[in-house]
Amino acid sequence: MSHGDTIPLHPSSQSDIDEIENLINASVQSGPARVLPARPPSPPRASIPISTSSSPFIQSNIAPPPQKVPPVPSAPPPPPPSSSIGNNNSGFGSPPNTLTEPVWDTVKRDLSRIVSNLKLVVFPNPYREDPGKALRDWDLWGPFFFIVFLGLTLSWSASVKKSEVFAVAFALLAAGAVILTLNVLLLGGHIIFFQSLSLLGYCLFPLDVGAFICMLKDNVIVKVIVVSVTLAWSSWAAYPFMSSAVNPRRKALALYPVFLMYVSVGFLIIAID
Amino acid sequence: MDLNQPPGENYANPKTCFFHVIFKAAALAFYILSALFIDNFVILFVVTVLLTALDFWVVKNVSGRILVGLRWWNEINDMGESVWKFECLDQESLSRINKKDSWLFWWTLYLSAVAWILLAIFSLIRFQADYLLVIGVCLSLNIANIVGFTRCRKDAKKQIQQFAAQTFASRVSSTIQSAFSVV
C-alpha cells in the first residue's frame, strides 16, 4: 500500500497529523514575525580582535566600552525618561545587527537622531506637511533635555524659591505634554502617544532659547518681545502635527490647549525675576 | 584565576557589569545622601534623574545586549502604527551567555526597582511630594527596562519553543511519511 490517504486512519492520529502540519505551516509563516534572531557578525567590522573566551558577538563590543562609555555622560543630550528607540533601519537593508554593534555606534546614532528630529520639528523643511513621516523615529531624549534645561533656566533666573520653580516647571511641562496627548486621543485623533510626547517636547526648544535670553537680559520689554517671538515659533512648530491628527472641525479644540500651555510657560518666563 | 572554580564561572564582561551596576548604585546613593544632608532640591532632582536616565540608556543599549543578548525598541511602521520590536541572539549564542552575567543583570534590575519603591514609601510617609516626583521618574525608567526585557525574554523563549516544535514537527512528519511510504 503506497498511498497513505487510502488507509483509514484512527481519528486521533489523523488530527495529530493535521496538528503537526499546522505547526509546520504556522512556524514557517510566523517565523520572521516579531522576534528577529540576530546572527553574530560576519560582515567585516572595524573592531579590534580580542582574544577572550567570550562568544563572537561580544568581540566588537569589548574594545569600545572602556574608552567610550565614560564620555557618554558628558555628551550634551542625556538619555530619556522613557524608552528611546534604537531604530533598525540602518539603511543597509539587512535584518538588524544592532545587537552586536559597538557602543560608540549606538551613541552616535542616538545623538544624530536627536539633531535630525530637532531640525524636522522646529525648522522649516519640506516634510512638515506629512507629520506621520516627519517624526517617525520619535525619541524622548531631546524632550527630556529641553524640559530639564527650561526648568534649570527658570530656576536660575528666580531669586527666591528656586526649588519650587524647578519642580513646578518640570511637572507642568511633563504633565502638560501627557494631558495634551490624551486630549488629542480623546478627540478621536490619530496620533501615537510617544510620538506626540516627543513632538511637544521638541517644540519647547524655542521657549528654551527665549528663557535663556531672558535669563541674560533682565529688561521687561525685551522679555516680552523675546517671549512673544519664541511663543509664536513654538506654536508654529507644533501646528501641523496637531492639526493633521484630528478631524478638521476639531482642529481648534486640539490646538487651543497647546497654545495655552505655551502661553503659560511664556508668562512663567516673563514673571520670573 | 582560582583553580577551584570551574572554567566560565567568572564574569565574562566585568566592565559592562560594572557600568550596569554603577549608575543604579550612584543614583540611589546620591538620592539618599542628598536627601539627608543637602538641602537643595534642584541639584538632587537633576543629578538623580540624570544618573537614572544614564543607567536606563546603558542597560537598554549596552548591558542588555552584552550580558543577556536581548534588545527591545519601538518603531512606527509605514501604516503609522507603533510596533514594539524584540530582538534576541540566535540559539547557540544565547546558550553561550555567562550565567553569572545574566544573574547579575536580572537581580540588579529587580533590586533597584524594589529599592526605589521602598524610598517612595518613605517619602509618602513624610508627605514630601517633590521627592515623590523624583522617585516617580526613576521608578518609571527602571520599570520600563524591566518590562521591556522581560517581554524580550519571553519572546526569546517562545522562539526557542517554536524552533524546537518546528524541528520536532518536521522530523516527525518526515518519519511518518517514510513509514507510510514503506507500507
List the helices and strands and how they pair.
The complex is a heterodimer of chains A (273) and B (183).
Chain A (H helix, E strand, L loop, with lengths): L10 H19 L6 E3 L17 H7 L1 H5 L2 H4 L28 H20 L8 H4 L6 H17 L4 H25 L6 H10 L2 H12 L3 H26 L5 H21 L2
Helix pairs in contact in A: 7-8, 7-9, 7-10, 8-9, 8-12, 10-11, 10-12, 11-12
Chain B lengths: L13 H24 L3 H28 L1 E7 L5 E8 L1 H5 L3 H27 L3 H54 L1
Antiparallel strand pairs in B: 1-2
Helix pairs in contact in B: 1-2, 1-4, 2-5, 4-5
Family (chain A): Belongs to the YIP1 family.
InterPro entries (chain A): Yip1/4-like (IPR045231), Yip1_dom (IPR006977)
Protein name (chain A): Protein YIP
Please name the defining characteristics of this protein:
heterodimer; A: 273 residues; mainly alpha; 12 helices; disordered N terminus; B: 183 residues; two-stranded antiparallel ribbon; 8% strand; transmembrane helix (chain A); transmembrane (chain A); membrane (chain A)
Shape designation of chain A: globular
Average pLDDT metric of chain B: 84
Category by helix and strand content of chain A: mainly alpha
The separation of the N and C termini of chain B measures 61 Å
Share in helix of chain B: over 70%
Could you name the ranges of chain A where pLDDT drops below 50 across 5 or more consecutive residues? 1-5, 30-96
Strand-and-helix sequence of chain B, N→C?
Answer: HHEEHHH
